[in-house]
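Hi Y.,

Following your request, here is the sequence exactly as I used it, all 468 residues.
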Amino acid sequence: MNLIEALRAALGEGAVLTNPSERAAYEQDWRGLVNNPALAVILPKSTEQVSQAVRLCAAHSVRIVPQGGNTGLVAGAVPIEGADQVILSFSRLRAVREIDVLADTITVEAGMTLAAVQQEAANANRFFPVSLGAEGTAEIGGVISTNAGGLQVLSYGNMRAQVLGLEVVLADGTLWHGLSGLRKDNTGYDLKQVFIGSEGTLGLITAATLRLHPPVASRASALVGIENLEQGLRIFSVMRHAAGPALTLCEFCTHAALALGAAHTQGGRLPFAAPAYLLLEISALEGGRDPQEMLETVLMKELEEGRALDAAIAQSERERLDFLALRENISEGELREGGAVKHDISVSLSRLAELVSAVETLVARDYPGFRPNIFGHVGDGNLHVNIRPPEGQDMAAIAARKAAITTSIETLAVSLQGSFSAEHGIGQLRLPGMVAHKSPTDLSLMRAIKHALDPAGLLNPGKTVPEV
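Below is the corresponding structure, written out as tokens. Let me know if you'd prefer a different format.
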């Protein structure tokens, strides 16, 4: 029996897609940059079926590409060129296994979307804080496998901080039962950490136990006009000292970036013009200080002292969501207007303004006419530095310069003691950066872990760790 027949016998006829038209949507990454064929797309509906499928693929020496919502930006969930691969989609594993409101945990299967987890938490009068622009499509297994960050890392941390336990199918089909909800368990290696952020190269996450948080009783948001990021960082520092952990969001956008988001938001508009913007949000728990009052008090002083050029404070939940939509639709706007050479970099807060200035100088000097599109998460030092083609040109016209642009931007970030991939991961597209910027010791350790857990190299080939 060949592999496809064996998979159909194990999973059911409708769970194995081999027709090119059925496979097409799974084979191409979200940005449309990578599109390679798979032997099949398989749709298991349980952890047991995932284990069966992995055993069968291992027996036939066929590699497995795990795929969640396929919303990643580095082509980490689609096939590579020139290898026999099966795409394993988790979209049918969507059960809530348990909610423990006393322990503040929820256990869900890997195919559940991030938005659905947020809603389940809300139904239990709890809050799940990880928030992404793609949360309606992004699936929990993928969000954990990429250690996604998002808009509220400032107060709550990234996905790693939310994970208490995992259930994982290993490369030989063995199931690791690690679904603990314990806050304390000091019994040897914390094995779940190996799989978080490993992009499906070490094991396939099938379920997770996640932290829940107290519900947010009220929020206040403001869009603040600033001259530059240096000015914005001073405002951030003042706001952070005033609000502490209640400051749950601080986003920086250049005028060009936020205008792009507004142009691709239904009814979107900028309330005022400024060279750049901060988007701030303060959240309060039940009985906490009024976030609107806190925001108004701080911003009034910043306006009086000239650190803020202008400010608009949301007067309703609708206005708050409208502000967020401007920020969240920047990436969608880029895609609709032809794309950009994307970079996801981070440095310490003390060097963030230096980074932006250096990027603008570099682009003006080496790539005249190209348009920097800079936005991101001020509170954790992570900016998306995307370079758009000159006006009137598309990505095809600058294809020959993409690699040089990326090398320049990544090298700049690393020269400032930063990272060339802050939250997007490595996938296929950031492998050159791994070779260029990670030490031989780093790479040796990663390869040793990969070989120990996946000696045949069956799991998500050509991702994360450069091959020797």
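The two ends are 34 Å apart (CA to CA).

Thanks again,
Q.
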